[in-house]
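Technical annex, item 7. During the second reporting period the consortium partners agreed on a shared format for inverse folding records so that results from different sites could be compared directly. Each record opens with the tokenized structure and is followed by the designed sequence. A conforming record, contributed by the partner at site C, is shown below for reference.
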């Protein structure tokens, strides 16, 4: 190849000056070298994209608490900045934000997990009532009888019965929950530390990241990306949390009016599952239908809790959420489904809860970084040969 390039350089003076010919040849070589490096970078990027999901899944014990903590910390940044604007020291402001989050999480756990554990332990005793309520439906669809009997037998003699036999006391707080699982306690403590240190060093980290850029335009673009990520993530999580809590309270009021036990627990379950798009509300309706069948003798009254949740969710999803979020935080439903499927496969239920916030962060960074046309650069005019070299060959 070097011989061909030298021969080409020697022939170029016939059609122009030696200096110009040499520059054209060197530019062609440099262009090919840059394209080769871009091709290697592209292949490495593709390999990283292929291997990253499996690495995240295999290292879930590390990546999951870190990712969840970072999402929570980003959502708490507006509160941190509000406190710092009032001259609260960064360490105290970060600790205050962390305590607020832990108090809210502990209250949610106490209001949901404790009653839910009692319902779970009472399920084997309520199976005959569920069968009696479903008798007309089972009679109409006689082909489902065997399936229902097998399911009931599995519930009565499987994990539910084992859980009831163990008679484990229901956790009443986060500490009670993690004390029964030391591994979960370590992950929780690690996540809390990540949130605290991220918030306490947020202002310095942002300033250092912006000032380290080599140009004013680069610093401005970096500041814009950071601010957009914080604004989009905190706005989405804050708005969705307010909507979900309101929805849960309305469902709890409706259940209280019809005499459903533990209405706050059911409202909390509805609010929590509503963070998972599409699948969460469906699962909430199924759980409410099961709870209604365990509580009421009349089948129509037993299905009323699920009907209340479905009706309120339809209003929330089609009128309230679009009106509040508006076009600024509108996300393509296909991207939501893909993100939900991907993160659910990687991390299970916690991944499903993190799917939309992570999608917002990735979308914000990608839109700010732009869309580099790597393939167009590599395969310009369908070849890997620089246009200058083509002209040289034509001249020859």
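Designed sequence (site C submission):
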């Amino acid at each position: 190849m070097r011989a061909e390039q030298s021969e080409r350089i020697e022939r170029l003076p016939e059609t122009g000056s030696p200096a110009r010919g040499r520059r054209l040849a060197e530019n062609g070589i440099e262009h090919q070298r840059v394209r080769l490096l871009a091709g290697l970078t592209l292949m490495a990027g593709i390999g990283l994209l292929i291997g990253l999901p499996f690495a995240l899944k295999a290292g879930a014990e590390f990546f999951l608490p870190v990712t969840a903590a970072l999402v929570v910390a980003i959502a708490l940044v507006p509160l941190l900045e509000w406190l710092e604007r009032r001259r609260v020291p960064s360490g105290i402001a970060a600790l205050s934000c962390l305590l607020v989050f832990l108090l809210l999480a502990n209250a949610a756990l106490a209001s949901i997990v404790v009653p839910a554990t009692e319902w779970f332990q009472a399920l084997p005793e309520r199976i005959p009532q569920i069968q009696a309520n479903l008798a007309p439906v089972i009679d109409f669809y006689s082909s489902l009888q065997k399936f229902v009997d097998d399911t009931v037998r599995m519930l009565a003699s499987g994990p539910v019965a084992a859980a009831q036999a163990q008679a484990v006391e229901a956790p009443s707080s986060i500490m009670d929950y993690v004390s029964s699982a030391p591994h979960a306690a370590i992950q929780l403590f690690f996540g809390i530390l990540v949130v605290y240190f991220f918030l306490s060093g947020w202002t310095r980290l942002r300033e250092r990241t912006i000032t380290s850029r080599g140009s004013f335009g680069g610093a401005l673009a970096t500041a814009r990306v950071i601010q957009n990520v914080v604004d989009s993530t905190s706005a989405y999580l804050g708005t969705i949390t307010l909507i979900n809590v309101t929805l849960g309270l309305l469902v709890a009021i409706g259940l209280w009016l019809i005499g459903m036990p533990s209405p706050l627990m059911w409202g909390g379950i509805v609010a929590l599952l509503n963070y998972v798009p599409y699948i969460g509300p469906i699962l909430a309706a199924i759980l409410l239908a099961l709870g209604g069948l365990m509580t009421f003798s009349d089948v129509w009254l037993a299905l009323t809790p699920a009907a209340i949740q479905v009706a309120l969710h339809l209003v929330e999803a089609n009128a309230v959420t679009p009106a509040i979020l508006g076009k600024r935080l509108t996300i393509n439903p296909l991207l939501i489904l893909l993100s939900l499927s991907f993160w659910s496969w990687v991390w299970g239920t916690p991944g499903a809860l993190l799917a939309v916030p992570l999608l917002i962060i990735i979308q914000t960074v990608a839109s700010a970084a732009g869309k580099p046309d790597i393939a167009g650069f590599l395969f310009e005019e369908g070849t890997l040969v620089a246009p200058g070299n083509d002209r040289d060959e034509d001249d020859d």
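The first helix runs from residue 2 to 11. The chain has a mean pLDDT of 76. All partners now use this format for quarterly exchanges.
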